[in-house]
Amino acid sequence: MPNKQDAGNQVLEVSKDTVLYKQGAPCSTMFLLRTGTVGLYLNYHTPQQFQIFEISLSGSSLGEMGLFEGEPRNATAVALTDCVLVEIFQDSFPAFIKAHPDETRQIILDLSQRYKMALQEVKNSHLIIQESLEALKEAQLNKKDSLKDKIKRISDFLLDIPEDVPPELYLSFNSRFHGTMF
């Protein structure tokens, strides 16, 4: 197959199940999906594997942090179907922008959508934490007294027990001579 180019970037035709990049790998490129579906995974092929989402819209981007930040890949990208992608390199990104303004706009929209999704996840997590703290506070307020606390309260009410005498001792003594208190 001849080596195809798009604005100085290589066009890749990959088969289903091809790993495009691995989580933690160094990178300096991003991909633009032309056709097919790509899945993004955390901890791919481990017991903790988690699919973040699927990308199937033509013109959608993935792996932007590699291009913009030079950070290691934060997920693993796997072709879920046969795909055609453009691998965009840092040095050819300006030429890609000039050649493809609509797809550049789609990259920005993709980033905006992902930011909104991340923000919604933070909001949801915050709400769960807030609800959990309120439930914990309510449970603390409604906490039932332990048996020891109940015995002490009853003993204090019915009898004048010195503070240094444990309620269990008094209850044991009282039940021997007077039957049970309850």
What fold name stands as the CATH topology of the domain at 5-100? Jelly Rolls
Helical residue percent band:
40-55%
Helix- and strand-based class? alpha+beta
Radius of gyration computed on alpha carbons: 32 Å
Structure commentary:
The chain has 182 residues and is of the alpha+beta class. The protein has five helices and nine strands; from the N terminus they run βββββββαββαααα. A five-stranded antiparallel beta sheet has the order 1-2-9-4-7. Strands 3-8-5-6 form a four-stranded antiparallel beta sheet, with no helix packed on it. Helix 4 crosses helix 5 (167-178). The mean pLDDT is 83.
Summarize the helices and strands and which ones pair or pack.
Blueprint: E1 5-6, E2 9-14, E3 19-21, E4 29-35, E5 38-42, E6 50-55, E7 61-62, H1 64-68, E8 76-79, E9 83-89, H2 93-99, H3 101-141, H4 147-158, H5 167-178
Antiparallel strand pairs: 1-2, 2-9, 3-8, 4-7, 4-9, 5-6, 5-8
